[in-house]
Amino acid sequence: MADIADVARLAGVSTATVSRALNGKTASPATRAKVLAAAAELGYVISSNASGLASGRTRHIGFMVPFIDRWFFADVLTGIESVLLSQGYDVTLYDLQGNESQRDQVFGSSLRRASIDGLIAASIELTPDEILALRALGKPVVSIGGYIEGATAVDVDNARMATLATEHLLSLGHTRIAYVGAGRTIASAFQLGDARYDGWLSAMRAAGLEVEETGFWEADFDIPSGYAAAKALLAHDRPTAIFAASDEIGIGCMLAARDLGLRVPDDLSIVGIDDHKLSAFFGLTTLAQDPAGQGRLAAHLLLAQLDNPGAAPEHRTLTPRFVVRSSTARPGGAVHETA
Amino acid sequence: MADIADVARLAGVSTATVSRALNGKTASPATRAKVLAAAAELGYVISSNASGLASGRTRHIGFMVPFIDRWFFADVLTGIESVLLSQGYDVTLYDLQGNESQRDQVFGSSLRRASIDGLIAASIELTPDEILALRALGKPVVSIGGYIEGATAVDVDNARMATLATEHLLSLGHTRIAYVGAGRTIASAFQLGDARYDGWLSAMRAAGLEVEETGFWEADFDIPSGYAAAKALLAHDRPTAIFAASDEIGIGCMLAARDLGLRVPDDLSIVGIDDHKLSAFFGLTTLAQDPAGQGRLAAHLLLAQLDNPGAAPEHRTLTPRFVVRSSTARPGGAVHETA
DNA sequence: GTGAAAGCGCTAACAG
DNA sequence: CTGTTAGCGCTTTCAC
Known about the structure:
Chain A has 14 helices and 12 strands. By secondary structure, chain A is an alpha/beta fold. The first copy, chain A, folds into 3 domains: 4-55, lambda repressor-like DNA-binding domains (434 Repressor (Amino-terminal Domain), Orthogonal Bundle), CATH 1.10.260.40; 60-156 and 291-318, Rossmann fold, CATH 3.40.50; 158-289, Response regulator (Rossmann fold, 3-Layer(aba) Sandwich). In chain A, α12 (247-259) links the parallel β8 (241-244) and β9. In chain A, α1 (4-11) crosses α3, α2 (15-22) crosses α3 (29-42) and α11 (223-235) packs across α12. The interface between A and B is large, with 54 and 54 residues. Chain A binds a DNA duplex (16 and 16 nucleotides) through α2 and α4.
């Protein structure tokens, strides 16, 4: 494979000049053109190891996730790749799924081999030691949907989303609105805290409504769990509406309602959060989070920090988009309205 | 950050010895212990760039996918990570989703920066130029679910799976069995060819059954598409069973049947392929593909080739596992049996 | 704007 | 089994 010396020879310049021309540093237009032509002719591609060793930059960024086999993280990754690949960056995946040793491996070794220029971490909850390890890298970190000390953060306002969703139901005339959402364990794994629960609660209270004990039903963030919770809830003291902490939970609720012979939205309104791929199919009203957009934003912010290492960490909160579909209506089956 | 010279000094040996001890080469136990202790004390971690530059190995492997936001690929990736991370390898993702330029970027540049030791490609259909580019790398490639000249391959026998699924229905007494599956475009994107179609067809023919024109219904590999196809199909000349080319299609069919007031399996049996995460919830009978297992196997095969560069490419075909659930029964609603 | 030269931190012969 | 000695292929001062 051709190396930089071959290019230099063919272009009739020094290797230093080739390096500069290829990296967009000072070089006369004429020289640059010669170098580019020579590089193209030889099919020259820079060696990332040599370049990285000499410069300290690797053009690799890390993406750390609790697990990759959940649509949210896969979508975020798609967004990240779409901006990073086009800028000539590769992304290395650090998947914390699996046993503890996989996690230790990542923090103890992979991250420290100086093979990345920066890191994007999604929904990661770090131990104190891990935070130290991350800071010791001295590399920019951007966090998606979770707070990491000193890192730029991209997130959505979970409490606000929950409030909006609840207010949508309230404005339709519902007063008996159940919340089906994450138990403590799951919520913390996703770093949602109890924000969505809190948002629901405060909207209900602001409307002067009692939130009976029966209002909260625990479910993991998936369809089966939403289904089970709704089955239990609907057999109980039936509400006229459900606010589901995620679309998958909401879809589970819709399926449960259907199996119980209830019509959505006539007998039961349901609103979720996410805008999952299946939500349009099921007609689920929801607040869209746009994970790919979060990934793109995170990638841009990271790139900006790479260009400008001195900059202070930012915190960007994204505005969710309300998507009203056919799962919500006035209680009792009145015509569907867009709140 | 401590470098190899620091470790050498502390351990009282040369840098070469440190390198050997750390890489599992010849070194006396006593020396190795000293080196390891020194490295641990200093928190030393090898520089992948320096090591890669000197040795030509990077301990990075690439994973190339048509898109990552499909459960199959995410699951494969989980399997790959579980074996590679523990062996000290990082995986960098090449996502071909997005525009052409993203793809060109990957083949023209990312892959060639010598930043990976090997590549795993899942369901990738390559152009002749791309195959050339890949071969030019001179690095081991393992392909999952698709054939790449000269590469080790891991796959499942799609025709056989389709035959088994169809035979399951036949053995239950069904004779009118529709196929809902991929149209040409989708099938080729996943490199399934028409194998599943062929398997269904040959099983039907072997049973002496006519496959009317109405037997094949086109659908993409997702729930909405399966739903739409089933709606059309069931309004038509109703079969007693459906063989769905994927579980997502099958789930769509189940939902459509339910919406039409049909009971599954009493009025309609449905069998899919995959063992999707949701299939247990829906009670869908299926043939499990175990994508994570495919990923693990691919990773092991790649590692083996890295250790033994001379070895000839292998071809491993995995055996699917039959998972009988509640979506299949004798026609007419007899008791469910496990084929 | 460009060239010469000195490394970046490691590994791989080659001796011993 | 271990030390010495060259590089691996680039980037980056520092002069000019």
